[in-house]
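quick one: flavin-adenine dinucleotide bound model?
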Amino acid sequence: MVEKSKIAIIGSGLGGLSAAIYLAVKGYDVHVYEQSNKPGGKANELKFFNFRFDTGPSLLTMPFVLKGIFKYAGKNIENYIQIKKLDVLCKYFYPDSTILNAYSDVDKLAKEINSKTIDSKESVKEYLDYSKKIYELTADLFLFNSFSGLSNFANIKALKTLLQFNKIDPFRTMHESNASFFKDAKTIQLFDRYATYNGSSPFKAPATLNVIQHVEYNLGAYIAEDGIYSITKGLHKLAEDLGVKFIFMNRVDKIVTKKNKVVGIVYGNDFVNYNAVLSNSDVLNTYHNLLDVNPYRESNKYNKVEPSSSALVFYWGVKTQSPELEVHNILFSEDYKKEFDDIFEKKICPEDPTVYIYISSKFKKDDAPEGNENWFVMINTPYDDGQNWDDEVKKSKGIILKKINKILGIDLKDKIVCEKILTPQGIEKKTSSTYGSIYGISSNSKSAAFMRQQNKSKSIDGLYFCGGSAHPGGGIPLVLLSGKIASELINKHHAVQ
Ligand SMILES: Cc1cc2nc3c(=O)[nH]c(=O)nc-3n(C[C@H](O)[C@H](O)[C@H](O)COP(=O)(O)OP(=O)(O)OC[C@H]3O[C@@H](n4cnc5c(N)ncnc54)[C@H](O)[C@@H]3O)c2cc1C
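yep, here:
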């Protein structure tokens, strides 16, 4: 009997799970190695003192990407995950006491912005049309397919994009573009915020990234009714149903090569032979610590690219009810430019941070005991550059509590019944993401999209990448796509035997 092609996947983050499913459906013998005791990586969950928290992502966009995985496997997603569209994507609180609901319905959103700012309904619609146009011109090229730099532009579809290059707005920053559409600083700040969805600064990232607003408002934002971790659990179950073998509590120590060709992996004292290895581990970690050779020309550029931002997350079980809050809430900073200078230039936690509060117990009652709520409180921070995180945590916690009290009138000091904290160092320790950066590299330059690790190594045969630090980038839908693209490349180069 001929053996099936054997593929090792290093890591069971969402990218690794997606790839495992696509490969299993194609008939590969797939083994997923995970250093933790459960799947998910950043998309994980924490349970303590009768509270449950999603640890990382809290909002799902482009749900058709997730649904597409189940469809490909011939399964009904509803037997695995229940997803639901949100009416209010996020409730924004501004320092001048303005409160603005970002509705998922575009007409309602335009009306709300019109009534809370000096901007018109028409300007919001015009802006979302502009964002949609960027999506139409870039999605095929930059999101849904493998990317090999300039050679990608050598086809008809890409030519269409090239001919309308100014429409993808690559030469202005996100902020410059937003300031050209809107007059009110509050509207500009709201749309500038989307730079943080891939760990960048709106004052540096190219306006092409204003595509994210189309994804969130025109295509819609969702939650999973059982918490975001049910997405991880659903994908893990599907993979197991398809015969994928998971090896938990097993860190891969080395990817073994022979004459620039992957031959297998080493974990503990064992060597296991594989036809190809897909790393869902961070790209820099793969180059620095996992590969037994250094493909210098390919790896060197990643050492020079600026890492994305990271985050400080407080998981607070709180003895309070907050009818004034939605599931997702933002308390904005006074000076957004300074906040990003603190993060990317000074590399300190912002002195006046934008505070994000996600409360899943508002829709999933058993995430907190009765009369309590589970507050996931996050600020954007620099990546780990040797800062003293104990000091940064202490300083930031004080600032956040003060801000919540000032803006929401909620004094949390005596209401926090239990707490866990995630720092950039913690992110690196738990998921091997170098510098604790959430999205691999930042998009703080025009060339960033071209600098991301491609899904197939150029110099080592049989080595593939997926996950937030590889093409097409971080965030749930993109890492799911990265797994799909990597599986297609593996299938092209290592046909099932
Ligand atoms: C605080 C926070 C908030 C976020 N918010 C959102 C959001 O609202 N919406 C959104 O879409 N995205 C959000 N994200 C981003 C999203 O979570 C990530 O982009 C995505 O989950 C990353 O998936 P990944 O495939 O890159 O794998 P990762 O999550 O990075 O997982 C990699 C896995 O590989 C394992 N691993 C690494 N090295 C080895 C090894 N040598 N051997 C064995 N196992 C190994 C790790 O243990 C880990 O399980 C957020 C992330 C964080 C941290």
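The pocket of flavin-adenine dinucleotide is lined by residues 10-16, 33-36, 41-43, 56-59, 251-252, 280-281, 290, 311, 313, 378, 427, 431-433, 438, 467-468, 474-476, 479 (CB under 6 Å).
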